[in-house]
Specification:
Blueprint (H helix, E strand, L loop, with lengths): L6 E4 L5 H12 L4 E6 L11 E5 L5 H10 L5 E4 L14 H28 L4 E5 L12 H22 L4 E6 L18 H14 L3 E3 L2 H9 L9 H8 L5
Parallel strand pairs: 1-2, 1-4, 2-3, 4-5, 5-6, 6-7
Helix pairs in contact: 1-5, 2-3, 3-4
């Protein structure tokens, strides 16, 4: 899709990757951006940007947003949360919170905005995922489970919305320099670089954008030996470093 003159809605738009989406969409000529957040008063004032109250865990809030932003032609599902919970002994309420935000959140927005996009000629959906959908570590595995569910959701709605001409693109990435990863020492991409790759892929019609080399490497391992997905376990056995 050519995003110039489109009207975009970005969830979780008040910081990090969401704010980078808002800024880059405006730079690329999008006519209007709805910057959606639970607390719209935290959003910066930018030309062509309309603050919008939206809590993706609240069905009524999502329905109100779809009614208010009924001219949306590009939906960017970016809102997400990580509690760093473990699956085996993490608090169940943390795991449920991640699923409510990271899986049921985009499910609600897609269901609410699908008729809106159809009325505008089809439009597009961009779902922000994570490399954690395909791998596992000592921590954050409930986050990974929610992102794996969101990946399956993305693949499913791509089929279901094809008949109305809606493009559905997945965006996956590894570490990004945001508040969510502030306490983690890791290789991190700039949010702006991730967003540029995402929008380049969207405009090229890509079904899936692997925004950095690490993500592309992990995705490729899905079709190889499953043991490659757990290099840290192999390292623990041999005393070597992780791949």
């Amino acid at each position: 899709m050519d995003i110039r003159d489109e009207i975009a809605l970005v969830t979780g738009a008040n910081r990090g990757i969401g704010l980078a989406f808002v800024t880059e969409l405006r730079r690329r000529g999008v006519k209007k951006v709805y910057a959606a957040a639970r607390r719209p008063e935290t959003l910066p004032e930018l030309p062509g940007v309309v603050p919008l109250e939206l809590d993706v865990t609240d069905a009524a809030s999502v329905a109100r947003a779809a009614s208010t932003a009924a001219d949306t032609t590009l939906l960017v599902n970016n809102a997400g949360v990580s509690t760093f919970a473990r699956l085996t002994d993490g608090p169940e309420e943390d795991i449920r919170r991640e699923m409510e935000t990271n899986y049921f959140g985009p499910l609600r927005t897609v269901r609410a905005f699908a008729p809106v996009l159809a009325a505008g000629g089809g439009g597009a959906v961009l779902n922000v995922l994570s490399v954690m959908a395909w791998t596992a570590y000592e921590h954050s595995n409930s986050y990974g489970a929610s992102k794996a569910a969101a990946w399956a959701l993305t693949n499913g709605v791509r089929y279901e919305l094809a008949g109305q001409g809606t493009q559905v693109t997945a965006l996956a990435m590894a570490g990004v320099d945001t508040d969510m990863m502030a306490g983690i020492e890791d290789e991190k991409s700039a949010p702006e670089a991730i967003v540029r790759a995402a929008l380049d892929g969207l405009e090229a019609g890509a079904l899936e954008v692997l925004a950095d080399e690490r993500t592309a490497r992990w995705k490729a391992r899905l079709g190889e030996d499953p043991a490659l997905l757990y290099p840290h376990l192999a390292a623990a056995r041999t005393g070597g470093g992780a791949a």
